[in-house]
Design brief:
The protein is of the alpha/beta class. About 40% of the residues lie in helices and about 15% in strands. The chain has 14 helices and 15 strands. Strands 2-10-9-7-6-3-4-5 form an 8-stranded mixed beta sheet, with helices on both faces. GO terms for molecular function: 2-aminoadipate transaminase activity; pyridoxal phosphate binding. It comes from Petromyces alliaceus (Aspergillus alliaceus). This is Aminotransferase class I/classII large domain-containing protein.
Length: about 425
C-alpha cells in the first residue's frame, strides 16, 4: 500500500463492511410495510422499551450465557446504547451527596470518566488494579473501608439531592468494569474475581455496572482452529453471579446491572442497547426522566432490530460472519505483532483463557520508551495512529502508583482491513526501532 496512506489502529469502531446491511434493509422494509408494526414503532413507545425486542433478547441472552435460570423480559430495559444507559444508571441510582465513590477497574474505558464526571463524581473516581494476576480485591476492600469511614465522619448519612422514590434505590458506591475482553487491556475477569466483587458489593452497598459489549465476539487463541470455542459464554456475567451466589441477591434490587449494546454487532448508529438486572432495577431505569418524557430512547431502531431475531438472522450473522471475520483480523494483527514487535522487546499480556476476542490488543513497550511520545512520532512520521496507555488512566485518581500505563499501547483490529493492520504494525515497529537507537 502507499506509504503516505494513513493506518488507523486507534479507532475502536466496527468496520462498515462487516455490518449486516442487507438484513437491516429487509428488516426496515418489513417495519414500514406493516401498519401494525410501523405505527407503534414510530410512536413514543413504552418506557421499558419495545416489548418484542425485550422478549427476543431474553431468549438470546439465555441461550448464550446459560444462566442457572432463564432470563425473563421483565429483567430487561431497552436503552439508547451502553454510553447513554451508563448516564441513566447514574441519574437514577446515585446521588453525589451520598454515593461515596465510583470505583473503576483499571485500565479503564477512558470516555466513561466523562460520564461519571457529568453525574457529579469529578474528583471521586478511583482505580482498582486489574492485571494478569487478577483483580486486586484486597486493595478494593481496604479502600471501601476508608471511604465508609470518611463518609461517616463527614455525616454523609442520607441522600440530599434525590428524594425517595418507589422505583429507585441510591447506592453508597458504584463499581464500573468491562469484565470480558476488556477495553483496553483485553483481559477477562476470572469467575473467582467476579464472585469476590459481588460479595464486596453486597457488603458495602455498591452497584456494579458492567459493560458487556464484547462478549459475543469470541474465538480460540489458536488460528488453526479459530471457532473451536462454542458460541456460549465462557464465564458467567457479574449480573448472573449476583443471581446465584450465596443464595442470590440480598434484596429485590440486587447489586449488579449488565450494560449491553448492538453497537459492535449491528452498528453504533443504531443507538440501541439493553440493560439487564433485577426487575426492580430494570423498571427503575425505565423511569429515568428522559424516558418518562419521551418513552424508550430507541423505539424505531428497536423495532427494526427485533425483526432480525424470529428466523435467527441476527444470531447466524454473529456466528457465521462477525466471529470468523474479526477472528481473521485478530490473527493477522497478532501475527504482525509477533513478527515485528516482539523481537524489539514489546510484550503481550499473558493469558490462560480458552477464548480471546473483542476489538483490541494491548501491548507493552520496553524501557525506556514512553507511549505518549511514541504515539506522537508514529502519527507524525509514519502515519499510523495508535492510542497511548495513559489515556486509560482513571482520571483524577490520586493513587498514581497503582494506575500507571505509560508503556501501554492499545491496537484496534476492528476498523482497518487485514492488509492495513499488518502495515500499521510494521510502521509502529519502525517507530520503535528508531526510538531505541
Amino acid at each position: 500500500m502507499d506509504s503516505s496512506e494513513e493506518v488507523n489502529l486507534f479507532r475502536g469502531w466496527p468496520n462498515p463492511a462487516l455490518l449486516p446491511m442487507n438484513a437491516l434493509a429487509e428488516a426496515s422494509a418489513t417495519v414500514m410495510a406493516s401498519p401494525t408494526i410501523r405505527v407503534p414503532a414510530l410512536s413514543y413507545g413504552p418506557d421499558e422499551g419495545y416489548q418484542p425486542l425485550r422478549e427476543h433478547l431474553a431468549q438470546w441472552l439465555t441461550d448464550f450465557y446459560q444462566p442457572h435460570n432463564p432470563i425473563s423480559s421483565e429483567r430487561i430495559c431497552i436503552t439508547g446504547g451502553a454510553s447513554q444507559n451508563l448516564a441513566c444508571i447514574l441519574q437514577v441510582f446515585t446521588d453525589p451527596s451520598y454515593t461515596r465513590n465510583v470505583w473503576m477497574v483499571a485500565p479503564t474505558y477512558f470516555l466513561a470518566c466523562r460520564i461519571m464526571d457529568d453525574a457529579g463524581f469529578a474528583g471521586r473516581l478511583r482505580a482498582v488494579p486489574h492485571d494478569e494476576s487478577g483483580l486486586d480485591l484486597t486493595f478494593l476492600r481496604q479502600e471501601l473501608v476508608k471511604a465508609e469511614e470518611k463518609a461517616q465522619a463527614e455525616g454523609r448519612l442520607e441522600p440530599k439531592y434525590k428524594l425517595p422514590r418507589p422505583w429507585t434505590k441510591i447506592y453508597k458506591h458504584v463499581i464500573y468494569a468491562t469484565p470480558t475482553f476488556s477495553n483496553p487491556s483485553t483481559l477477562t475477569m476470572s469467575l473467582f474475581d467476579r464472585e469476590g466483587l459481588v460479595r464486596l458489593a453486597r457488603e458495602f452497598d455498591a452497584l456494579i455496572i458492567t459493560d458487556d459489549v464484547y462478549d459475543f465476539l469470541q474465538w480460540s487463541p489458536d488460528p488453526q482452529n479459530p471457532l473451536a470455542q462454542p458460541d456460549r459464554a465462557q464465564v458467567p456475567r457479574v449480573v448472573d453471579v449476583d443471581r446465584y451466589l450465596d443464595g442470590g441477591p440480598k434484596d429485590e434490587w440486587g447489586n449488579a446491572v449488565s450494560n449491553g449494546s448492538f453497537s459492535k454487532l449491528i452498528g453504533p448508529g443504531a443507538r440501541t442497547g439493553w440493560a439487564e438486572a433485577t426487575e426492580k432495577v430494570a423498571y427503575g431505569l425505565s423511569q429515568t426522566g428522559s424516558s418518562r418524557s419521551g418513552g424508550a430512547p430507541s423505539q424505531f431502531s428497536a423495532a427494526i432490530i427485533a425483526q432480525l431475531f424470529p428466523k435467527g438472522v441476527f444470531q447466524r450473522y454473529v456466528d457465521l460472519v462477525l466471529r470468523p471475520k474479526y477472528a481473521e483480523r485478530y490473527y493477522r494483527l497478532m501475527s504482525a505483532v509477533r513478527e515485528h514487535l516482539l523481537p524489539l522487546g514489546v510484550t503481550l499480556p499473558s493469558t490462560s483463557t480458552e477464548a480471546v476476542g473483542g476489538y483490541f490488543v494491548w501491548i507493552q513497550l520496553p524501557p525506556p520508551l514512553h507511549a505518549d511520545e511514541l504515539a506522537t512520532i508514529a502519527r507524525q512520521e509514519h502515519r499510523v495512529h495508535v492510542i497511548a496507555g495513559n489515556l486509560f488512566r482513571v482520571q483524577g485518581d490520586p493513587n498514581t502508583s497503582k494506575n500507571d500505563f505509560d508503556r501501554g499501547i492499545r491496537l484496534c483490529f476492528a476498523w482497518e482491513d487485514e492488509e492495513k493492520l499488518a502495515e500499521g504494525v510494521r510502521r509502529l515497529a519502525c517507530t520503535i526501532r528508531s526510538a531505541l537507537k
